[in-house]
DUF6535 domain-containing protein
Amino acid sequence: MKRVDLYDDEMSRAWKEDVDTLLVFAGLFSAAVTAFVIESYKWLNPSFNNVNNDLLRQIAMKQLDIVVSSSQTNFVPQAASVRINAVWFLSLIFSLSTVLLGILCKQWLREHRRDTPCSSSKEALELRQLRYDSLERWGVPALLASLPLILQAALVLFFYGVLDLLWSLNITVAAVCTAASVISVSIPFLTTILPAYYLLKYRAIAKFEDDVLLCPYKSSQSWLFYKLTTIVLQLFFHIKVTFQDWASSDLYLLRTHTENRLHSIFLLRGLRWIVKTFGDSMAMANHMFYCFQTLPVDVAAHASGNPDEPSRDAVYYEFFRHSAWDPDIGRFVAELFLRQINCQNANAPEYSFWVLASMDFIGDGQRPQLPTEFLQQIIGSIRCFCADNRITLLDVDPLMIVCKKLWSHPDPAIRHQSIVLIDDFQAWISRTPEELQRDFIPSFASSIKDIIYSEDERAPMSALILSEKGREFIKFLDRHLAAQEIDVDVYSLQEMPPMSWQEGKGKVARLSGLSTDFFDKASFDSRIRVTNEEPLDVSDTYTVA
């Protein structure tokens, strides 16, 4: 019964709001008409000044010995005065009648929705249906729908009286006011007719139209006009479809339009509107995600604004990547990104590695540390990315930030597994054409220099500095920089770089306990070696399918 009560409450509330609005307008309108009527009714009686003038004229004639007829002509008001008073008084009567009927309707609605204790829900439903059927049978909804029509008729009569008065006084003023009045009266007239016309026209052809738009000018008087029109048309034509109200007609047009289509254009537009309007709301993000899960991939892709996305993961990624600052959503976006780069046929979106670079791998006490399995996924995915030669210049900086976090991770196993990325980077650079190396090598060297600058004697120290692989990679970059005569310091985004490349090499040697000229030697000094640094195969790390 809760749903039934909600429906009845909404129906009664809408009626009461309409009646309240009409009562306010009818009261103000009646006051305005009364002000005109107070002056106009005098035009129906002889004027006191005219009577005095007649008496003075008779006295003057007697003094001049002019024979005065004793018969007096009866006063006859002008035809315009009769018309004006007739329509204005009718207008006032219609307006006050609207107030009277509106008050009565509110009383009837109050009794209709009166809460009556019943012995069971079954009896409550029976009582509700009895009241509703009686309300329909006695014509209360029709009377409520006619109240605006009565008030509009009063307004039209008032306009007619005003225009009649103006045409008898001044043609120019009357013409201007007539044009304004015609426009004002045409608007409610057309908005009453158009919904019925549209519904009668399009309900038969809605399924064949590419786009169907509902007429929004719905009102109680337009519904009454539609019902009267269908009654007349049924005398000449056979009309099968009848509707209970405007809502049922809207639903009919929607279902008729979409029954022969793969996807409703209104569903696609609605989802797109929700994403554009509420896409930045964290409270709505989860709801929209669960909604997308129930939709076909092409519908979800269109809703997210990327209709050409082939996979569901790519759709989710594009939708959530702007909300990756949230820890939970950021983790989910990172997983989606890893799935994409592990797909051989997928191209990672630009700047997508920043999703991983912005994550907190360790945790700060409030957010949990990323699990080892997830970090292994990251390592394996980066190795596959390098093996497929998909690195771009825009990927270098975020990749190095990710590696920095992996190489400095508190877990020795993660540091050991992630340092093998050095081999992948070095092998990828060696496969790169020489003209591209001039772009990539300075970018790698600049990122490595930033990692070195941020390191000190604290524990754990980056595996880039402690491991032989890291020192070999630094020397590998240094050798290419020297061979191609590249000054890596000019590639810094800062006007005054905090550390030069030469100073970075010296810091690595100092932190590793090596001689200051270590990187200038022809071969590496093998005095310091980190045990258990056998390179891992790509298959040793878990990757996302």
